[in-house]
């Protein structure tokens, strides 16, 4: 299989893995949202930072180092496995003892037992970190799909049953634990690798020297990604946090699927051609345009149909989430692009620069958040929208120098897509406001706008010869 065919196959299977797993999770969350109250989702959202930071500590830098190590053997794999396992137990102990302080911070006493049970996810996840990394490194996303989907279905069924029985927030806790347990079991079934009884200090030092910078960067990014949940949970009500977290989780369905799917392929793919700057630039450029070509119209379409979509899926009690959702969708358009710029830094071995950039961005972000918090949730959301464009600019300056792809050239390559997607979105919005909403029920309204948007977007893409459409026809449709 050629490099191009391997890349395309990897992206498609990775995308299918992301889409199938997320769609299952999304459908389950719809059922749960209809049963449970926003405040109960808000309580779980308060813990997302601690679980995410724990997973980053265990899974961030060392596993990234494994992917870029072409000759990783049993010593490397076993060493990282036992480090992750020991680290997860230590982190859970810290979380267990810190539960009262977390509850005090959020002023929610119920969080104490929730933290101590939900935190067990960290230990479960540590058991399959290396197996999952090997599947990613080998681009075996079909196997990952066969693991992720059944695990999500099993955990979701348990969550829905418990919610129906009146377990409230605990249905979400046990759903998370069940999903992690099933994922662990199936990784061990599908993966042939088993840890040996050895821990090599030299191997650990090699991976740690590269990985600790990536881990620190990952922690900073994780804190930043969850900082709005922290602030809203601390200074506003659990109900408002529930509305925000539901808006964020739905907006992440397209953002997370497209971004994560391509990102899983992009990093090992970039690593394979990191010594050829010309090819790296070409691959990066085409990948960036392709991702934006699909990401931007989906998110703008969701902005247009946000109100009927939320009412149809979640009922009227979740309508306060709509404006949050619309801002988050626009904010997410640029997220995959600055993430791919960071991939360039990683494969070029610039982990120190990677860390410095993350520190600079997070400091600027915290300053901005503290400045805008007095304007309420909307002030925070509009700042988040603005800062996503700033983050892309900062990242692209340095990665652009490494592959001779400056910011100006990048913007010139993506601007036609943004203008096209945005213009059609504005037209569909006014058509909906002035005509469609007057006679069509919610589902019909969504369908009419969706079909109209897709037809005009595809048609104008062909008419003005968007390069991403040409690449899609060549790589995927073989035309």
Provide the fold topology:
Blueprint: H1 3-35, H2 38-45, H3 48-59, H4 61-68, H5 74-106, H6 111-118, H7 121-126, H8 129-137, H9 141-164, H10 169-190, H11 201-235, H12 238-272, H13 277-304, H14 306-314, H15 322-332, H16 335-347, H17 351-372, H18 376-402, H19 407-439, H20 442-463, H21 467-475
Helix pairs in contact: 1-9, 1-12, 2-12, 3-4, 3-5, 3-11, 4-8, 4-11, 5-6, 5-11, 9-10, 11-17, 12-13, 12-15, 12-16, 13-15, 13-19, 13-21, 14-20, 15-18, 16-18, 17-18, 19-20
What brief labels describe this structure?
479 residues; globular; 21 helices; single chain; 2 domains; mainly alpha
Account of the 3D structure:
Helix 4 packs across helix 11 (201-235). The model has no long low-confidence stretch (mean pLDDT 82). The chain has helices at 3-35, 38-45, 48-59, 61-68, 74-106, 111-118, 121-126, 129-137, 141-164, 169-190, 201-235, 238-272, 277-304, 306-314, 322-332, 335-347, 351-372, 376-402, 407-439, 442-463, 467-475. The chain has two domains: 1-215, no CATH class; 273-479, no CATH class. The two termini are 19 Å apart. The chain is mostly helical and 479 residues long. 85% of the residues lie in helices and 0% in strands. The longest helix is centred in the middle third of the chain and has 35 residues, at 201-235. It is globular.
DSSP helix fraction: over 70%
C-alpha end-to-end distance: 19 Å
**Succession of helices and strands:** HHHHHHHHHHHHHHHHHHHHH
Helix count equals 21
Indicate the overall shape: globular
Class computed from helices, strands and strand pairing:
mainly alpha
Based on CA atoms alone, the radius of gyration comes out at: 22 Å
